[in-house]
Amino acid sequence: MIEFLVSGGPVMVPIGLASVIALAAFLERLVALRRGRVIPRGLVRSTLELLRQRRWGDALAACRRDDVAVARVLETALLVRGRPRTAIKERLEEVGRREAADLERFSQVLGTVAAVAPLLGLLGTVWGMILTFEVIEAQGVGVVSSLAGGISQALITTMAGLTVAIPTLIATRWVLARADDLVIELEDVALEALDLLCAEAGVPEDGAATGVEA
Prior knowledge:
The protein is mainly alpha-helical. It has one domain (2-201). It has 9 helices and no strands. The protein has helices at residues 2-6, 12-32, 35-38, 41-52, 56-65, 69-79, 85-103, 107-139, 145-201. It starts with a helix and ends in a 13-residue tail after the last helix.
């Protein structure tokens, strides 16, 4: 296998590096986008119950114990408690945009690798064909074995580029879809917290209820 990859020529080095970067980024997102790392159900249930009981201090303490996205959103809502509904809404939207961007972190890295890997494969293809034509120019087309090296290099790099690009593209779509799902859940939690804060604390209804934005 190693000899097979080496026969692809120098272009295999950046393709291999791109594959390592993509794998590292995907594994990091695979761990970071687990629901328990973003929206722990136990924390949500306990905090919302504290809000229903108007135990603001206990709810704030519960949020500060966990450094997760939903805790930061709920903490923000508690810190602006008592303000007009529109003011709470705007603050939640700001925090929501920041959390959404954090959930989509490294998706651009994956997208870049997915776009660049086939181009690197194409570069290797062109390089291999150039070598082939140089052999043809020097030796003619009579000896087929002398042409095999360049053609083989061209095909190997093409295959390597596609082998990296295809799963990386799938990983990119998965990360974005997973982040969107979690953002929707954050919006639902933020909406419920907003309703509880406004209803229980007597905040004036001067704006439409909403959650956080992606």
